[in-house]
């Protein structure tokens, strides 16, 4: 009955995908102490992982009603709302309401000298909890490897509690790498200022391990959010957001506190893993039927996502759908998703659910089981879409009215596949059906997509690094002039 131990026990169970047991423990805590805001926040995170994001938002709000400005609940709520919100102004309003919790009194009003480091290079800071085996690494390593180091130096602030091989790879390729896990926000902000960083990038936003409070304290003269978060941070102290014209077209400025800086070639640059297996022929040639699929995070799979997928599945008789996500080792999550498909009019016998793969190679090899990938909506995939294309699997993506629902459009434009982007639900099913009707076309795509991906601007590391560097210079000049 010792509540702190029970709470930690529930967290551990959840990390082991023993979700049902975790919920039992959390609810036991709440019977003893109904206002245990940490248990409520952890229960909200559990619901988020199940894709029950609206229920999770309600729980996060309940936790905040008990302990206002409890940062894990603030960050959890802000991230969670992105999974289902499709109105830019609503997104911004929620962020503006909650970001005061991060505070800004310590350094915000301090003046910075004009950035002019003795070595003549602009000092770029990268702050992230994801310098590890994480999707962010696939898009960060190309920049680190290619950025002109005669013009820029790179300094990382890592909140990774347990470093891995990716951590060590990043550390070996930058000018300085500070392990800052355990430092307070005030201490980290002071360290960044002492390091005389000119342009500081937040690679996490309001995701797990967020350091938004550091950016609220104005740790550097120029502060930019990029890569890890699909919406405005809501912070007045975040100056810019790196994006592109497909992910954030003209008019999207109304949804951001940040000034949008659109990179000409796209805001993403993908580094395919070295150990990716070769694409296999599409399984429809052997099976005689089409297998659709999605390998996205289960939190992105909302009821409206399954309803969209059902249109495509039901448009192709005898087709199957394979969904792969780490939590599917849990029976409760499997059953919930099977029920979602049934509610959308798809018989559960047509659905295959797969769990965790022990390596990147085995994860990528699982694409040999699907013919066509269906993107999530309203929160598109990113790494999963790149991986599908790498394995020769075309991905149909519905683009919408917020950044999270337009990442697929950004990727497809960068790869030169605009025909796979649709802007209406009925076109989503029609495009999937058209692809499914031509096995020879699918075989051709399987054979050629990897080469097309690697030759596209999505993988043009040199071009991306040049455009990124030019953007850094322009942002610094804008702030200092």
The percentage of residues in β strands lies in 5-15%
Q: What count of helical segments does DSSP give?
A: 19
- The end-to-end span amounts to 60 Å
Gyration radius, rounded:
22 Å
The portion of residues assigned to helices is: 40-55%
Number of strands: 13
Uncertain residue ranges? none
**Main sheet makeup:** 7 strands, parallel
How does the helix and strand content classify structurally?
alpha/beta
What is the overall pLDDT average?
Answer: 94
Describe the global form: globular
Strand order, sheet with most strands: 3-2-1-4-5-6-7
How is the secondary structure organized here?
Layout: H1 3-15, H2 19-32, H3 37-49, H4 53-66, H5 71-81, H6 88-98, E1 122-128, H7 135-146, E2 152-158, H8 165-173, E3 176-179, H9 185-194, E4 199-202, H10 212-216, E5 222-225, E6 240-243, E7 259-262, H11 284-287, E8 291-294, H12 303-315, E9 320-324, H13 331-343, E10 351-354, H14 360-365, E11 372-374, H15 383-390, E12 395-398, H16 407-415, E13 421-422, H17 425-436, H18 439-455, H19 461-480
Parallel strand pairs: 1-2, 1-4, 2-3, 4-5, 5-6, 6-7, 8-9, 8-11, 9-10, 11-12, 12-13
Helix pairs in contact: 1-2, 1-3, 2-3, 3-4, 3-5, 4-5, 7-19, 12-17
């Amino acid at each position: 009955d010792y509540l702190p131990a029970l709470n930690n026990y529930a967290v551990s169970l959840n990390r082991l995908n023993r979700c049902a047991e975790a919920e039992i423990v959390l609810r036991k805590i709440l019977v003893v102490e109904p206002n245990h805001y940490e248990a409520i926040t952890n229960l909200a995170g559990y619901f988020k992982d199940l894709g029950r994001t609206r229920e999770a938002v309600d729980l996060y709000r309940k936790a905040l009603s008990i302990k206002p400005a409890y940062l894990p609940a603030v960050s959890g709520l802000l991230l969670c709302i992105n999974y289902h919100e499709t109105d830019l102004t609503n997104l911004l309003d929620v962020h503006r309401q909650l970001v005061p919790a991060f505070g800004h009194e310590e350094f915000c009003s301090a003046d910075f000298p004009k950035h002019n480091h003795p070595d003549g290079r602009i000092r770029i800071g990268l702050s992230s909890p994801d310098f590890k085996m994480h999707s962010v690494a696939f898009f960060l390593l190309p920049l680190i490897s290619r950025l002109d180091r005669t013009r820029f130096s790179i300094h990382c602030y890592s909140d990774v509690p347990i470093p891995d091989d990716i951590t060590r790879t990043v550390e070996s390729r930058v000018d300085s790498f500070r392990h800052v896990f355990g430092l307070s926000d005030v201490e980290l902000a002071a360290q960044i200022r002492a390091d005389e960083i000119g342009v500081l990038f937040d690679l996490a936003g309001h995701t797990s391990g967020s350091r938004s409070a550091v950016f609220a304290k104005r740790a550097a003269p120029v502060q930019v959010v990029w890569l890890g978060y699909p919406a405005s941070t809501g912070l007045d102290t975040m100056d810019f957001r790196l994006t592109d014209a497909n992910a954030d077209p003209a008019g999207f400025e109304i949804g951001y506190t940040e000034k949008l800086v659109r990179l000409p070639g796209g805001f993403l640059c993908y580094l395919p893993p070295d150990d990716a297996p070769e694409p296999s022929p599409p399984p429809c040639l052997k099976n005689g039927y089409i297998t659709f699929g999605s390998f996205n995070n289960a939190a992105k799979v909302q009821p409206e996502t399954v309803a969209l997928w059902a249109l495509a599945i039901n448009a192709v008789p005898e087709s199957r759908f394979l969904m792969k996500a780490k939590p599917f080792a849990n029976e409760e999550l499997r059953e919930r998703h099977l029920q979602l498909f049934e509610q959308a009019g798809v018989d559960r016998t047509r659905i295959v659910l797969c769990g965790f793969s022990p390596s990147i190679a085995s994860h990528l090899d699982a694409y040999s089981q699907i013919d066509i990938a269906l993107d999530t909506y309203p929160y598109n995939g990113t790494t999963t879409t790149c991986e599908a294309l790498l394995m020769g699997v075309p991905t149909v993506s519905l683009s919408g009215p917020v950044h999270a629902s337009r990442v697929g459009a950004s990727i497809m434009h960068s790869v030169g596949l605009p025909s796979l982007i649709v802007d209406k639900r009925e076109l989503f099913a029609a495009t999937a059906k058209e692809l499914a009707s031509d096995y020879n076309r699918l075989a051709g795509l399987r054979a050629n997509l990897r080469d097309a991906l690697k030759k596209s601007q999505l993988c043009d590391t040199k071009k991306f690094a040049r455009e990124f560097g030019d953007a850094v210079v322009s942002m610094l000049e804008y702030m200092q002039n």
